[in-house]
Specification:
Helix content: 25-40%
Mean pLDDT: 85
Number of domains: 1
Radius of gyration: 17 Å
Strand order of the largest sheet: 1-2
Length: 122
């Protein structure tokens, strides 16, 4: 069982109120619909992008955790979810033998896919 190292109390409302308090600002709610329209939400259509998200990464919901159209407009995109203890933001970018097996598998999958896209695989 995975035990998150980040309190569940540190949610969206907590951070909005935190920013209001420390910056003495009257903040509006984030313009999520605008960001989705501008960046494409989960319906983006690009080629050769490999998204890796980790279980304890607070930014995982800002990235692609799954592909809504993996055989259509998103056929040249991949996602990989790393589920392990202490796997947080950018844990997949640290190349070392002591990485958790879940991280090593994600790195191997990304490497193999990128090699295929570049025409380097046999």
């Amino acid at each position: 069982m995975l035990y998150p190292t980040r309190s569940l109390s540190l949610d969206h409302d907590y951070w909005i109120n935190y920013c209001k308090r420390i910056f003495h600002l009257k903040l509006e709610s984030p313009k999520i619909d605008y960001a989705h329209a501008y960046y494409g939400d989960n319906n983006m259509s690009v080629d050769n992008v490999f998204f890796i998200n980790s279980a304890e990464d607070p930014w995982q919901h800002a990235g692609m955790r799954y592909l809504p159209d993996p055989t259509g407009t998103q056929k040249n995109m991949r996602t990989y979810y790393v589920d392990c203890e202490d796997c947080g933001h950018c844990s997949d970018l640290h190349i070392k033998d002591s990485n958790d097996q879940a991280v090593l598998k994600a790195q191997a999958a990304a490497s193999a896919q990128i090699e295929e896209w570049l025409g380097l695989s046999s």
